[in-house]
UniProtKB/TrEMBL annotation:
Name the UniProt record assigns to this protein: Restriction endonuclease
Species this chain originates from: Streptomyces argenteolus
Stretches the record annotates as Disordered: 93-113
Length: 239
């Protein structure tokens, strides 16, 4: 684990900060690369872009969003630790903007041929979950499990390497649902997929694109339709 000296600009106290390590879905430990010598910055207000940082796994090359390293000084000041930007094709993240993590292994280029999907007419919220389960199996996910009672995490379906949520309400799925699903997937080191009957807010769609979460819209005939680029990629490439 990497350790860097950090001075609090408020009280001038010195700290030795140890980089947090997170598990990449490939199993390798991954840590944000800290910028030695760069001053820590006090946090006065929070935004999503500042609270998360793009990190590349040195083993598999996967690029994901991880919590930005922070340190809480005993004086009460919360400090953000500077992180080296991730370079992509000769352009740094700071210049090119944050990139979405890839939802599929880079070595995969095409899915195996599938038979036509047989939809299930949706009359109830339970039907919506059952349709999503059928669709995930059709995409190629194994061991799709539908719990009898929806857990507090709001995860409706689990499969090998996947968690999925099904929003059967009549309102567009909000940003919070996308972020909560992503955090659940992050904690379990698996991928995530979201289904919705009423579509998505613009903020939810934009965030899902940034996190590479496939979004599908369910119609009452039971045929899921891709609602963003990651969903199109999942259909063409497979899990």
């Amino acid at each position: 684990m990497e350790s860097v000296p950090v001075r609090c600009p408020a009280c001038r106290r010195e700290h030795a900060y140890i980089t947090p390590v997170y598990p990449c879905p490939c199993g390798s430990p991954t840590a944000p690369p800290l910028m030695r010598g760069a001053p820590a910055v006090p946090i006065t207000h929070r935004t999503w872009n500042d609270d998360w940082v793009s990190v590349r796994c040195h083993s598999c090359g996967r690029r994901d969003q991880w919590p930005h390293p922070e340190l809480c000084c005993p004086c009460g000041t919360v400090l953000r630790i500077p992180v080296r930007p991730v370079a992509t094709r000769g352009i740094t993240q700071a210049a090119a903007g944050p990139a979405a993590p890839s939802p599929v292994p880079p070595s995969r280029t095409a899915a195996r041929p599938r038979p036509s999907f047989r939809p299930l007419v949706i009359r109830t919220a339970r039907d919506a979950v059952s349709t999503a389960a059928l669709y995930l199996r059709w995409l190629g996910y194994r061991d799709v499990v539908q719990p009898e009672v929806r857990p507090s995490s709001r995860i409706d379906l689990r499969a090998a390497g996947l968690v999925a949520q099904v929003d059967a309400t009549t309102r567009p799925t909000p940003l919070r649902d996308v972020e909560c699903l992503w955090l659940n997937a992050l904690n379990a080191s698996v991928a995530a997929v979201l289904f919705s009957l009423a579509g998505y807010t613009d903020e939810a769609r934009s965030r899902a694109d940034g996190l590479a979460i496939p979004l599908f819209v369910l119609d009452l005939t039971g045929t899921p339709q891709p609602a963003n680029g990651p969903a199109d990629e999942l259909i063409s490439v497979g899990p």
